[in-house]
Amino acid sequence: MNWSISFEPLVSWPLFGLVFAPLLLLALAGLWFRQRGSTLRFIALLALGAALLNPVFLDEERQALKSVVAVIVDRSQSQDIGDRAKQTEEALAGLQERLGRFKQFDVRVVDAGKSEAADERTETRLFSALEGAFRDVPPSRIGGAIMITDGEVHDAPAGAPDFNAPLHALITGNEHEKDRRIRFENAPRFGLVGKPLDMTYRVISTEGQGGPVDVRVSVNGQQVSVEHATIGQPMKLEVTIPNAGRNIVQLGIDHEPGELTDANNRAIALVDGIRENLRVLLVSGEPHAGERTWRNLLKSDASVDLVHFTILRPPEKQDGTPINELSLIAFPTRELFVEKIKDFDLIIFDRYQHRDVLPILYYDYISEYVEKGGALLIAAGPEYAGESSIARTPLMSALPAMPSGEIVDKAFYPRLTDLGQRHPVTRGLDGSATDPPHWSRWFRTIGVKNPEGEVVMKGADDRPLLLLDRKGEGRVGMLLSDQGWLWARGFEGGGPHVQLYRRIAHWLMKEPELEEERLTADGRGMVLEIRRQTMSDDPGPAQVITPSGKAMTVKLQKSEPSIFTGSLQTSEIGLYQVGNGDLTALAHVGPVNAPEFSDVISTEDRLKAPAEATGGSVRRLAPSSALGSLTGGLSLPSIVPVRSAGAASGDDWIGLRTTDDSALKAVSRVPLFAGFLGLGLLLLAIGSMWYREGR
Predict the structure, then answer these.
(1) What is d(CA 342, CA 480) in angstroms, rounded to the nearest whole number?
(2) Burial letters for 422-444: b for 16+ Cβ neighbours within 10 Å, e otherwise?
(3) 71 to each of 84, 95, 127, 135, 522, how far by Cα in Å?
(4) What is the pLDDT of residue 120?
(5) What is the DSSP letter of 33?
(6) Is the Cα dihedral 74, 75, 77, 79 positive or negative?
(7) TM spans, by residue (predicted)?
(8) Cis before 234? omega within 30
(9) Alpha helices in 74-115, H assignment, sequence order
């Protein structure tokens, strides 16, 4: 029972003071001058004042509140090493059993340290979880916290945490653990394709040992070299980036006997390959309405270095003007087509015809250039069907179609073929979804016979309009109309000339995203996403090999024409191998070189400062004695409730604070001057005063 007194005045305090103060002064003056009956008058005045103040005795019924104790359980992946997971479960069960004996503790168990968010770094953040556990608890009710962890905590404060209660840490793992790991010291995120990239790495041993170690270097799953490194020393590495887009550089060292884990015996660097500026040679046969369409498009692309020549003065136009009086630049045929032809990524002939500007032998050089991996685009006009067509030169061996001699001057809408609706060059062109397409008409088609390769667009009377073909290691494209400039000029609303021309050029230059058959994989958080681009109707399932070597199958679903996708929810962090048909791909799932595996040795050091700042303790669960190691038991401390001013830890016990807070359940009121008792006391005081005054 909790007794207290309270006043509930019958009149307001200002009115009480206004009336009672003068009377009190008169009564005190009577006492001072020792007037007859002043004592009884003073007592009667006090009784009247007490009646007006209405004193009430309160009896409060309260319930003692519990102290909140947080048990933070580290569920990070480093806790799966060795027997740490078993130690954790045994320690948690033992703590719950011991804490359950004390009714004054409200125990909250929080699993922490395991994150599967898409873009979140895999770190062991136990203090963030602790803050969440105490978020709704008043500071006076926090009894303390117990962490079960291997000590590798990445958000531990340098001093005391934000609560005034003991923090205790129970460390899993064993003393004298050893491990060896490798990491990148410097790994640029970008590199030029085909150029060496400088990187730096280091091999680290927990025992501080030195000596040599072999490091395997792989790029996109293919081992490229074996480096000889010195443990503990920064080592330089030079790799060549083979592809544009995402490249995976992996370093690996052998597992050493007695190591905790080999999860950190590999280091990954993701490098985005960037092509140097693409070199394009554009040769225009003669000025025409669409001559600048290709030029403007290629000049607007910052990744393209363009060399453009227009043949303004062919040999048949010789008029006797001396060369030194002409402002024209001579066409450097030998320099371009003999000495530097291999430097170009793409050669475009725009309405070009053979007029003895190029020697016949040079066309053979161009064909050889294509066979060895070069790219050639023919933007054909009426010249292609004439007597001076380049199809009548040795270049014919590289061309996908021979001219039939026809020139069809007829209005038509360029349309995608069935193949073109699936081909990455023309698939999804803006305006192609309707019939007729939502773009302007063209008015000329150049006839060809026996087309080879892939016909992705058709013109008037369903004749081939855009051909794409492979010749040896190179590629050839042929656009059988010179009317594309109508789209660029906005005729009848124009059309997607930039989108189409750019795709054609980049397909010819082997842009990976425009390959007809392509398999890619990527990690989004802990999800492996697979994308298959194919010209077939069903590529079949994808085969996946996890970092641990387990084989799995992922079904691919059609998401859009020629695009099939699938996903796999994973739990392993590392490099995944994906295969489908003859294609393979690599993807890294989870954080790259996660801090969780940067150091896996269990330690007491990181939590010692915050624990000691709160009066808590840090101790290992595994006994250090040989007997304890043989029996396999845990050294679990006892739980002792302590007051706020007492010690919170001992050799074999840990203390948790109890609270003095309570909750009010009910209040009983006993008025002192209520009813006949108050009336009797008041009458007694006034009557005594009247009796004394009457004598």
Answers:
(1) 26
(2) bbbbbbebebbeeeebebbbbbb
(3) 17, 9, 11, 14, 37
(4) 44
(5) T
(6) positive
(7) 12-33, 40-58, 672-691
(8) no
(9) 84-99
Place of tokens 């082997």: 510
Q: What residues have CB less than 8 Å from 590, skipping those under 6 apart?
A: 122, 523, 525, 526, 570, 572, 573, 574
Helix and strand element counts for the chain (H, E): 12, 36
Contact call for residues 446 and 409 (beta carbons, < 8 A): no
- Distance in angstroms (rounded) separating the CA atoms of residues 483 and 460: 12
Q: Tell me how far CA of residue 161 lies from CA of 70, 109, 164, 165, 612, in angstroms.
A: 14, 18, 8, 9, 11
Q: What share of the chain in percent tops pLDDT 90?
A: 40
If you write DSSP's letter for every residue of 219-281 in order, what string do you get?
ETTEEEEEEEEETTSEEEEEEEB-SSEEEEEEEE-PPPTT-S-STTSEEEEEEEEEPPPEEEE
Taking a C-beta distance cutoff of 8 angstroms, is the pair 667, 59 a contact?
yes
> Which pLDDT score, from 0 to 100, does residue 372 have?
93
Other beta carbons less than 10 A from residue 554's beta carbon:
19
Lowest mean pLDDT among 34-38, 261-265, 289-293: 34-38
Which tokens belong to 325? 């009086």
Through-space distance between the first and last CA atoms of the chain, rounded to whole angstroms:
48
Burial of 49 (0-12, 13-18, 19+ CB in 10 A): middle
Q: How many CA atoms lie within 13 A of 4 on its CB side?
A: 6
Q: Work out the pLDDT band at 42, boundaries 50, 70, 90.
A: confident
Closest to 580 measured CA to CA, from 534, 542, 536 = 542
Confidence (pLDDT) at 627: 38
Length of the chain: 695
Confidence band (pLDDT; 50, 70, 90) for 424?
very high
d(CA 142, CA 107) in angstroms, rounded, equals 11
537: buried, middle or exposed (CB in 10 Å: 19+, 13-18, 0-12)?
exposed
Tokens of 622: 């595994």
> Residue by residue, what is the 3-state secondary structure of 556-598?
CEEEECCEEEEEEECCCCEEEEEEECCEEEEEEECCCCCHHHC
Q: What are phi and psi of 602, to 5 degrees?
A: -65, 140
Q: Determine how many CB atoms are found less than 10 A away from the CB of residue 308.
A: 17
CB 589 within 8 A of CB 574: yes
The answer to whether 109 touches 73, Cβ cutoff 8 Å, is yes
Collapsing DSSP states into helix, strand and coil, what is residue 64? strand
Q: Which two tokens stand for residue 693?
A: 């005054």
What pLDDT score was predicted for residue 118?
A: 40
Q: Locate all alpha helices (DSSP H) within 397-528, ordered by sequence.
A: 485-488, 497-508
DSSP 466-477: EEEEEETTEEEE
φ, ψ at 293 (rounded to 5°): -65, -50
Q: What is the model's pLDDT at position 666?
A: 67
pLDDT of amino acid 312: 62
Structural contact between residues 143 and 130, judged by C-beta atoms closer than 8 angstroms: no
Sign of CA dihedral 353, 354, 357, 362: positive
Q: Residue 627 belongs to what H/E stretch?
A: helix 626-631
**Amino acid symbol at 616:** G
Q: Each residue of 168-216: pLDDT tens digit?
A: 999 998 888 888 888 899 999 999 888 899 999 999 887 667 788 999 9
> What's the pLDDT score for residue 295?
86
> Which residue's entry shows tokens 């008029």?
319
> 223 has which bridge partners?
218
